[in-house]
């Protein structure tokens, strides 16, 4: 019996369907069926009740499922521990980040980190929030600067700062002369909307703004990055709501406007693996903790 047999059985037990389980595991359905039969032969009992239109677990199957999940979790935890031990011995730090960190964090803290650890090899990885969190779980990066607050068995997050969202409109908009944009004007306009996969927290906050107005946002176009939001506004494709840090990137063709409603804040978090005790991570956390007693916005 190998770990793959346990993985195959757990997938079948969760799906109760060989075809769906095979698709989930990226293997052929006949091969998966044979692997489960081989497992049952080795155990000397049936784990599944097979009927023409249904699949269910036997009493033995229910018991084996609990143990199989436990064993797979132990194997995954052991893998994580060894990877973390190996990574702490390397004089290397992989940092995942969003553009906001590139602009508002790195210029302040990286010179200090390099001064304290001049031989440290720092590699930067520009990734979306979701890709950063997955890379952190997969041991591909050591720290992540994201909009998501994670607190689970393996990952912790620390809030670094919170910044307001702002409304951007084209300079040549018919509303450019207004000091404040009303609720009705927001509802009537089409917006450049950040894609949910690229910026899930920003996406949800903007959705919440319009839900509070008892309407849905009118989307002129979806954007995969914040610069695209700004440029499309400059081209008069629509309005957009973005974090305040972008104001230094705006051209003369884009205006910031106050709104009748209060726009929410959005936070930036430092995320890291809880079991990571490396001196490199401690240095980063200490420097960030000291620096962000300051208000940089």
Would you summarize the structure shown here?
This protein has helices at residues 3-15, 18-25, 29-43, 59-88, 99-104, 106-116, 129-137, 183-188, 200-212, 226-234, 279-291, and strands spanning 48-50, 55-57, 92-97, 121-126, 143-146, 155-170, 180-181, 190-194, 218-223, 239-243, 254-259, 265-273.
Highlighted features:
12 strands, 3 domains, two-stranded antiparallel sheet, alpha/beta, ten-stranded mixed β-sheet, D-Maltodextrin-Binding Protein, domain 2, 297 residues, Arc Repressor Mutant, subunit A, 11 helices
General description of the model:
With 297 residues, this protein is an alpha/beta fold. It folds into three domains: 3-80, Arc Repressor Mutant, subunit A (Orthogonal Bundle); 87-160 and 267-291, D-Maltodextrin-Binding Protein, domain 2 (3-Layer(aba) Sandwich); 164-265, D-Maltodextrin-Binding Protein, domain 2 (3-Layer(aba) Sandwich). It contains eleven helices and twelve strands. It has helices at 3-15, 18-25, 29-43, 59-88, 99-104, 106-116, 129-137, 183-188, 200-212, 226-234, 279-291, and strands at residues 48-50, 55-57, 92-97, 121-126, 143-146, 155-170, 180-181, 190-194, 218-223, 239-243, 254-259, 265-273. Strands 3, 4, 5, 6, 7, 8, 9, 10, 11 and 12 form a ten-stranded mixed sheet that branches. It has a two-stranded antiparallel sheet with strand order 1-2. α1 crosses α4 and α6 crosses α11. The chain is flat, with a radius of gyration of 25 Å.
